[in-house]
Structure formats: structure tokens, C-alpha cells
Amino acid sequence: MVVEKPKLADAVRAARLYYIQDLTMEEIARDMGTSRSSISRLLGLARAEGLIEVRIHAPNAQASELEQRLRRSYGIEALVVPVSESATEMEILDQVARSAAWQFTSMCESEMIIGVAWGTTIAAVSQHLSRKMTHGAEVVQLNGAGNTLSTGIDYASDILGRFGSALDARVQQFPVPTFFDFAATREMLWKERSIMRILNLQERCDLMVFSVGAMTGGLPSHVYSGGYLEPDDLDAIKAYGVVGDVATYFLRENGVSEGIPLNLRSSGPPPEIIRKAPRRLCVVSGTHKARGLKAALTAQLVTNLIVDERTARTVLDLDKSDREAGSFRP
């Protein structure tokens, strides 16, 4: 018997909520506006149709409309995390982080170099990582964590340590400030052999995992709430039209990072280095990050995206508005 595509899409959604996000059948039934017995039948259909093995398989034909639109618009692989209307921002972050941890683990293999950019979202992902034994893998920190209040070592090392432990991988820390006081200082330090070794690892990453930072709204991004930027810095990036950052490297809405003075002082990898990684997993939770995510997508920094459905819809609405207004990507 041929199963209709909408029914298969419902089965995929139910399976993701049940197996990845640990929701009960009663909770899923409320979210999908149906009964518990219907959810049970959808899960049975998912198993019968081969959608569930060790992980959930969602073929393109059964991918959600939002996932398909993101793929068509930006040429990426997208997983849109379904969330209930009543979910809080913390609950949405937790659901996205669970899905991202599962996706991340499935992407990792032995001998890989994996770049990790610290932050609120990636810290949440690190809390849900499952063990996957690899050999010869290395986890490298992408941006420094020091500021005038703290070295940042404890914060960043906790996150990096969880990634390393999950993969039995060697962790390579990057003990430099998040932002230098002077661009010339960074330029000189980047010539030191000990720093060049880390920069070389970053350039050779097989996989990078990062989020998008946002200055305002929703759950605060750590770089904006943790004392990393002075008031003058915040005023400057607003003046330059910054909508967000990737690994503490700032982007305008059109995805352009050039001409923003603070980027010359950032320890994070510039876009041309990020794009060298064959696979770049971006994890985003919260509609306040939609403009920053759109900038990262426009700059082609992302190959794989995990995002909640509210934010995915907001990004696509922004994209539609720009197209109708005659805006084109650089």
C-alpha cells in the first residue's frame, strides 16, 4: 500500500519529537492536535516505512516544507526542529540542542579535526552529546575566550572538554583574548609559532560547529552578556549595521564582514577560513537570531543547519521580503 506524503511527514515529525526530544505521546498528541492512539499509529508507520533505524531518516520527499525551502534557497542541509506553541525560549533551546547533539555525533568520524566555537547555544549542545568512540580526532577551539574580567578558560574549556570526552578526542585550546585592544597586537601574536599551530588546525578543520550571536532579544548571546564588549564597541557595531556574529566575527545583514573595524581585533576565524571546512554545522534557537542567521546563510558559512521552526519561518519570511524589495545576495 502506498502511503500518502502528508502522512509520512506527520510520521517523521512524531518520531523526531518522541525519539530525539523525549516528549511523551500525550505531549506529542497535544502538539499535533490529535490523539495519543493516532501518535502511536504514526510511530508504528515510521518504523514500518524504515524511517527509524538507529536514527531517524527523513528523505527529501518527506522533509518538512520549511526544510525544503531552506534547501532550495541556500543550498544547505537543514533540520527544522518542531516546537510547540507554548514552549518557552529555554525549552526551545533545549529541544534544538538535543537535535543538534544527535546530528553532530552522526557527522563525526575518526581522524577528523573538529572546530568548536563557544557560546550559549553550543554550551547547551555540549550538555546533550552522546558518546561516540573515535581515534585520532582533535577538537580545536575556534575563538579566544579571554576578556578584561576573566581569562575565559574555565568557561571555554568546559564546553570543549565535553566535546572531547564525547568523542575521546584530543582538545586543542586557544588561550587568547576574544577581542584584542589593538589590531596590531593580534597581527603580531598571529606570527607566534604556538598560535600559528592552532590557526593551522582551524584552517584544516573537517567539521565546524557554531551558532549565531545576537545583540538583543531572547536569550542573550554570551559574547554580548559576558563582558566581552565595551559600550563603545557595542555602539560601533550598531553603527556599522551588524546583525550578528559567527565565532565572534561580525556580519552585516547582506552577509558582508569587511569594513567592520572590530573584526580586525577579533580572535575568531574570518569567513574565508570558515568556508574552508567541508562541513559547517550551524545551530540556532530563537527568532531574535533570524537576521544574523540569514546573514550567515547569505555569506555561505553554513552547510548543515539545525534550527527551530519559528526561526526557520522568520528567516524565510525575511528572504521573501528582500526578494520582493529587489535585494540580491552579494
Plain-language structure description:
The chain has helices at residues 5-20, 25-32, 36-48, 65-74, 89-107, 120-126, 153-167, 183-189, 193-203, 222-225, 231-239, 271-274, 290-298, 309-324, and strands at 77-81, 113-116, 138-141, 170-172, 207-210, 242-246, 249-252, 279-284, 304-308. It has 330 residues and is α/β, with parallel strands linked by helices. It folds into 2 domains: 1-57, Homeodomain-like (Arc Repressor Mutant, subunit A, Orthogonal Bundle), CATH 1.10.10.60; 63-324, 3-Layer(aba) Sandwich (Rossmann fold). It has a 7-stranded parallel sheet with strand order 1-9-8-5-2-3-4, with helices on both faces. A two-stranded antiparallel ribbon has the order 6-7. Helix 6 links the parallel strand 2 and strand 3. It is globular and about 65 Å long. The termini are far apart.
Summarize the structure.
It contains 14 helices and nine strands.
- How widely separated are the two ends? 48 Å
Number of H- or I-type helical stretches: 14
CATH fold type of the largest domain: Rossmann fold
Percent in helix = 40-55%
Give the quaternary arrangement of the chains.
single chain
What class would the helix/strand composition place it in?
alpha/beta
The number of distinct β-strands equals 9
Low-confidence stretches: none
* Anisotropy-based shape: globular
Alpha-carbon Rg, integer: 20 Å
Based on the coordinates given, report the CATH architecture of the largest domain.
3-Layer(aba) Sandwich
Strand order of the largest sheet: 1-9-8-5-2-3-4
